Every structure is written in structure tokens, then in C-alpha cells.
Amino acid sequence: LTASLVSFSQLQGNEAEFDKTCVFCREKREEFTEAGLELHYLSHCPMLRQCSYCNQVVEIAQWNSHRLTDCESRSQFRECQRCREAILTQDFDQHIQALLCSVSDQSISSRCPLCHSDIPSGDESWRFHLMNTCSKNSRRGNGSNADIQATQPITTGGSEGEGGG
Fold first, then answer.
1. Which of 21-35, 109-123, 140-154 has the lowest mean pLDDT?
2. Would you place residue 12 in the very low, low, confident or very high pLDDT band (cuts 50, 70, 90)?
3. In Å, what is the CA distance from 139 to each residue of 8, 72, 116, 132?
4. Within the chain, where are the H helices?
5. What's 100-118 look like in SS3?
6. What is the rounded distance in angstroms from the CA atom of residue 139 to the CA atom of residue 45?
7. What is the mean pLDDT of residues 75-87?
């Protein structure tokens, strides 16, 4: 793969110690060798997405930040000061004028770039949301993640307005 968030060698020094578990969604499978995990990251992990602008595999929780600061095409995005989402520059004026997004308080939560709900801070909240409750996550329930049910609060709500994803 040309764009991998975490390579197999970065996770473990040697395969004998590797426990065949995705570090993002915590799914464990026998086929999670180096190639199996790379395929999982690229196509199946409910916590990750490939950026269509630079092809880098990115955590969904970091999607807005990626598009605004790390993406090779970051100049094509602007941050909405109301919802704090990365909006395509060409759509920015329309996004602002429509007033369909809701105010985001990043001191207590983050905004899901898929469904625009506010997610309480923390990895477990994101994992629960993306694997169980995010209506816009097409990878939700695509694996054997049934045994990974977090006990985090459900999202605090958001708008279905125009977003950056």
C-alpha cells in the first residue's frame, strides 16, 4: 500500500510478538498479518478512512485536523469558525451563509466529520461512536467487532447540515 497510517513494523519489532489485533478498533483476527492489517486499515477498519485528496489513511477522529493541517491538499479547505469542520474552500461561502451547522465546543467534545454529532473527548468515546452509533460510518459493523462494545455515553447531538466530509 502506498499510504498506511501505521506500518506493521512500527507496531511490533517482530511477528512472533505481534498479537494480530488492530490498534484502532481492537478487532483481533488470525489473518491480521502485515498484509492483512494493511488491508484492514485501508478498507475495513471503522476507525479509519483514506483521504481522497492525498490517499493517506487517517483516523476519522483526526479527519478535520488532517484536512486543515496535514493533507497535501490542505489549501483546498477552510475551517468553519462555527462548527469547526474542514470545509472545501469552493463550498465555504455557501456553508457559512446556509447557517445549517451547529456550534462546536471543542473544549468538551469533537465533531464527527461523518455524521456531524459531537463526540465526548477521548479514544473510547470515538471508538464507541464510530463502531456502534455513527449512522454515516459505512464500515460500522463490517467486521467481527460485536465483542467490542464500549460503555461510553452516546453522542451529545449535532446537525445534519453541510459538513466537510
1. 140-154
2. very low
3. 22, 25, 17, 10
4. 8-11, 34-39, 63-65, 89-98, 123-128
5. CCCCCCCCCEEECCCCCEE
6. 7
7. 93
What's this model's pTM, rounded to 2 decimal places? 0.72
Closest C-alpha to 123, from 61, 63, 45, 51: 61
3-state helix, strand, coil in the chain (%, to 5): 35, 15, 55
- Of 50, 61, 47, give the one whose Cα is nearest residue 145: 47
**DSSP β-bridge partners for residue 59:** 48
The cell for 88 is 472545501
Q: Is 57 helix (H, G, I), strand (E, B) or coil?
A: strand
Query: CA angle at residue 53 from 52 to 58, to 5 degrees?
Result: 65
How far apart are alpha carbons 45 and 161 in whole angstroms? 26
Residue 79: beta bridge partners? 86
